[in-house]
Give the backbone structure.
Amino acid sequence: MNITRVARVLRDCQPEEEVEVRGWVRTIRAKPAFSFIELNDGSSLKNLQIVVDAAVDGYEESIKQIGTGASVAATGTLKESPGKGQRIEMHAATLRVIGTADAETYPLQKKRHSFEFLREIAHLRPRTNTIGAVARVRNAVTASIHNFFQSRDFVYVHTPIVTASDCEGAGEMFQVTTLDLTRLAQMKTEIDYSQDFFGKPSYLTVSGQLEAEIYATSMGDCYTFGPTFRAENSNTSRHLAEFWMIEPEMPFYELDDNMRLAEEFIRSVVTDVLANCSEDMEFFNLRIDKTLLETLKNITDNEFIRLPYTEAVEILEKSGKKFDYAVEWGRDLQSEHERFLTEEHFKQPVILFDYPRTIKPFYMRVNDDGKTVRAMDVLVPRVGEIIGGSQREERYDVLVDRMKECDVEPDDYWWYLDLRRYGSVPHSGFGLGLERLVQLVTGMQNIRDVIPFPRTPKNAEF
C-alpha cells in the first residue's frame, strides 16, 4: 500500500478506500476503548482524524507512547465523518509509533504562539499552521516563477555566489576569505590577497544581474533565481542579510517592454497562488490580514499605472499628508510614500519610472535630459516597492562616465564593458526579492517569517 499524503486523503479520497498515512500527532484524546488522533504531515492546514479502536493490535502499548509531536504510521479504511467540519476520517487497522515526543517539554502546545517565539525554534516552527502555510505558498510562488519564465522561453542561468563585483556599488558585502583572520589582526602590514583562495578580494554576491547580462547578450532572454547577501546592519521587518532574488535580463527590451513584463509577472504569480493555494490563502485572510484577498484581487484586476518619478514627487508634495521622511526631488522615495501612492492616491498598483541619476546605480541608461535614468520601481498596495529594474546603459562611453561618477573602477569591470564593445544592444531587466513577494501574497508582516531560516544581524542559528 502506497503512503498517501494527508492533503490528498482529505481532498480526493472516498469512503471505504484503504490508505496508509504517516505524520506527526497534533493532538490525541486517549481512552481505554478507543482514541482519536489528529494527524498532520505538513501537506495541509487540516488534520486527518484517525479513530483507533482498542482491538487494534498493540493498542494499549502504542497509545501510552503517543503524545503531541510524536510521529506515527497508520493504515486503515476511510469513513464518512460524523464530526463537524470534516468530510472524512480514518478507522485504523494498524498503528505504529515511529518516534516518541516528550509532551512536557515539547514546545508547541495547543495554543497560539508568538512569531518571535517561533523564530527561536525554527527547527520546529514548520509544524505550526501559519509557518506550514507560508512554506506551501512559498513553494507555489517558486513554481509559478519558473513556469512564467520557462513558458516564455527564458533560459535559467546559475550565476556565481562568490564574486569580485559589487553590482550596486553600496559596499555592503560579505567578504569571503581563507586567510587566518586571527593572525592578520596581529599584523600591521597590508593584506596580501595573492595568498587568499581566489587571489583577490572576494565577496558573497549582492546580485546576479551583471553576470546575467553576459548570457542575455549571447543567448537571449534569461533569468537567475538564487540566494544573495547584503551586510546591511538593519533590524527591520523588511530586511534580511540572506535572501533569494529573481533577476530576468532581456536583450532588445527597452523600458516600456520591461515594465510590461514586470506587470505580467506579478499578475501571473498572484493569480497562480490564488488558484493553487486557496485553503492557505483563506487562512491568511482570516488569521493574518483580513484585507489580503481584497488587496490581491486589486493587483490582478487593475492595470498598473505608469507614472514618472517627477510627477510622483509633485503628487506627494501636494497631498497635504505629513510624512515621517521629507519629499524632495532627487531623494529616493520611502515605503510610506510608495504606500500612499498605491493605497490612498491611486488605490491600485503603480510603476514609477525615470528616476534621478544621482540615486541610481551606474548601469542604468541615462535619459536624453541628462538628469534622469531609465529606472523603474513596481509599487503594490500594502508592501510598496516589490520590483526594481531598469533599461541598462548600452553605450560604452556613457557607461564609463557613469562608472567614474559612481566611484566604480572601470578596469575592474573590463568584461562588462566588453559587452558594449562587441555587439552591444539595448537591454533591460529587473530584480524581485522572493521574500517580499511571499510577504505580499501571505500578508505576513515580518520578512523573517517567510524564509525558513532568517539571517539577520547577530543571528545565524540553525
User: Anything to note?
Assistant: Residues 129-150 form the longest helix (22 residues).
